[in-house]
Amino acid sequence: MSLYNFFYYIGRYFMLMRRVVTKPDDSKLFFANVSREIIVIGYNSITIVAIISLFMGAVLTLQTAYNMTNPLYPDYLIGLGTRDSIFLEFSSTIVGLILAGKVGSNIASEIGTMRVTQQIDALEIMGVNSANFLILPKIVAALCTFPFLCLISMIVGISGGWIAGELSGEVPTSQFVYGIQYLFIPYYILYSLIKISFFGVIITSISSYFGYFTNGGALEVGHSSTKAVVNSTLVILIFNLILTSILL
Amino acid sequence: MIELQHISKSFKDFKVLDDISTTFQEGKVNFTIGKSGSGKTVLLKSIVGLHEIDAGRILFHNRDFTNMDLKQRKEIRKEIGMVFQGGALFDSATLEENVMFPLKMFSNLSYEECRERANFCLKRVEVINKNHLYPAEISGGMQKRVAIARAIALNPKYLFCDEPNSGLDPITSIVIDNLIKEIILEFNITAVINTHDMNSVMEIADNIIFIHQGKKWWQGNKEEIWRTDNEELNDLIFASELTKKLKKFYV
Q1: Considering only alpha carbons, which residue of chain A is nearest residue B162?
Q2: What is the pLDDT of residue A118?
Q3: CB A198 within 8 A of CB A148
Q4: Do strands B29-33 and B215-220 pair parallel, antiparallel, or not at all (unpaired)?
Q5: Buried b / exposed e along B27-47 (16+ C-beta atoms within 10 A)
Q6: % of chain B residues with pLDDT over 90
Q7: Listing from the earlier edge strand, what are the strands of the sheet with B2-11?
Q8: Which ranges in A169-186 belong to alpha helices (H)?
């Protein structure tokens, strides 16, 4: 991709966002759309986030235990290591990357299909700001639900770690519980919630962008969906680095 | 009345519309015809502002649409109804919700009044007792009728139809043609219709514009079209043996 194209796409993204962030034409319809998107984007993602977090927590505990075979290390450090890994990175970044795949592809294909079947043109002809009508409810819904998904991931991840530690006999419950309370810094939770909120905006806006500018037919909808996931993932990783250096 | 003054539009180096000027009269059925790729759809989309034109002016009742800002265009667009080639109904909404959508967005009617108006429009296009079905659950012809119902929900002054008969059988096509004609007369709408279907043109056209290679090649009415000596137009309209025989018989 040439430098010209890079700036062209960035410029087009911000021009689209300028149309997105305006006052909705009808506030009742807007809140109805936000409620619908909360179900689609947030509620429907709880199961996948919970399953992945459970296994992630379990594997983290086992790997931490494997790396702490020295008898000088107390067992509770396994709980502490699991907690910090989950709170600082996994519940925000890994969950963000998973949601980029699930939610991002869904958004890009939904809006892309609307574009190629002229539903977006129909909205424009009616005098509706289609960008605002279609994209803003998704961004707001992501901002409302992603922090909750992150909290669910933290709770389920820690539970997964505890179950794995107990079942494998690597760390007794009392030591694990002591570990997850030891040197606890509440700011880690806030840090994680801030990160996932940014990721929510990134995922919904970038996926909507690729869907909105789909050009062609069914094949291009598939391409847009792939591009949405790849680009959201890349931007999440870049922002993860930026936010970590700013917030920690 | 819609007035086009020297409209031109290019995509990169390819000129799609080249200096088109014409007038679409109020309460008349205006057809734009031409081969595939001649620029009909681009012309239609340019008139409604889905494409920005490179040169010229578009006037809706002497209001210059070309130089309006988004807010002013929005007001004009509330007076426009459009039927797209594929219907462009919202997949996630029922037929009734589709027709109610523009009413909920832009009218001050209550929910019940919106429903009443939507039901009136659906009945007008003869879609009865199907309000709670989704677009995917009905036939292509019915989708077109619902699209017409949605287009007329806000009592538009202008109706644009992009190939309303594409993919329909001849009988359903005639039903759609007659429906469009009746609605235009009933509500005194200025209609612009893109089509390949010469049956429609011969049935309901008041004014016909033939677009060839992005230029306005010919303009006239359905009587004049039989007698035209325009070679490209004759090639398009009287392409089949049947239509050639018909022309000989008619002329």
Answers
A1: A118
A2: 93
A3: no
A4: unpaired
A5: ebbbbbbbbeebbbbbbbbbb
A6: 49
A7: B14-24, B2-11, B55-60, B63-64
A8: 173-181
Within-domain flag for A8: no
How is residue A66 written in tokens? Answer: 């494997």
Q: What is the pLDDT of residues A64-102, one digit of tens each?
A: 999 888 888 898 999 999 999 999 999 999 999 999 999
B140 lies within 8 A of chain A by CB: no
Is A97 part of any domain?
Answer: yes
Pick A29's closest partner by Cβ from B77, B85, B105. B105
Distance from CA of B115 to the nearest CA of A (A): 15
Record: contact A128-B75, CB cut-off 8 A: no
Q: Give the tokens for residue B211.
A: 């677009």
For residue A27, the SS3 value is helix
User: In whole angstroms, what is the distance from residue B78 CA to residue A127 CA?
Assistant: 6
Q: Could you list the residue range(s) of the whole structural domain that residue A87 is in?
A: 27-247
Closest CA to B82 of B148, B144, B135: B148
pTM: 0.88
Report the residue of chain A nearest B51, measured CA to CA: A121
In three-state secondary structure terms, A2 is coil
In terms of average pLDDT, the best of A140-154, B35-49, B228-242 is: A140-154
**Nearest residue to A113 (alpha-carbon basis) of B90, B142, B135:** B90
Interface contact flag, A118 B88, Cβ < 8 Å: yes
Class of B1-79+158-218 in CATH: alpha beta
Residue B189 DSSP class = -
**Which of the listed ranges A134-138, A169-173, B10-14, B104-108 does the model predict with the highest average pLDDT?**
A134-138
Considering Cα of B149, then B154, then B157, then B158, what sign does the dihedral take? negative
**Residue A121 covered by a domain:** yes
* B144: contact with A, CB 8 A cutoff: no
Which of these, A229, A238, A191, lies nearest to A108 by C-alpha position? Answer: A229
Q: Convert the pLDDT of each residue in A15-68 to its tens digit.
A: 999 999 999 988 889 999 999 999 999 999 999 999 999 999 999 999 999 988
pLDDT at B125 over 90: no
Q: How many domains does chain A have?
A: 1
**Does any domain span residue A147?**
yes
B82–A contact, CB cutoff 8 A:
yes
- In tens, the pLDDT along B64-114 reads 999 898 888 888 988 999 999 888 999 999 999 999 999 998 888 899 999
B77 at A interface, C-beta within 8 A: yes
For residue A152, which amino acid is it?
Answer: I
Residue-range domain boundaries for chain B: 1-79+158-218, 90-155
